[in-house]
Amino acid sequence: MALSPPRRRLLAEASATVPAPRDSVADLLLSVRSGPAGPDNGWLLIARGGPENLTLTGGPNTFTAHAPDHRFTVEVDRAHRTIALQGGWWYRGEFAVQPCPSGARIVHRVYDVARRGRWLVPLANRGFVGFRAATQRGLADIAERAAAELSGRARGRAAGGA
User: Fold this and answer.
1) CA atoms of 102 and 137, how far apart (whole Å)
2) What pTM was computed for the model?
């Protein structure tokens, strides 16, 4: 992504497959515009268990997500089918949608982007014990939700809906 911080350290990488066309999966994950988050705006933020009352400002490629108790940056690169979420003092999560024989593969990478106090990051996260497994489980859940969402949209279109 073009706006990546200069110093970052990969902490975890996970991938999961969605049995749907890559462009459909990318459209779903990269659906971000200014306004309240919901099923048709910021889908990934909601699917990740994001906070209620989330509002996005900015655009068209860089947004600020405002939650009641915090905010974070959302960067969308539609040409490369990637979206990044960055917040707090250390976290950056990047999601890329890639083609694969059975549909689309979502790759999620988590980086430590702390500019100061980098040595504190593992301490603040219990040494990242179980972090990679939790990242994989979380991405598998997102992939399942994306498959269900896209399947539901396809059924709606077939039935004459929007």
Assistant:
1) 20
2) 0.86
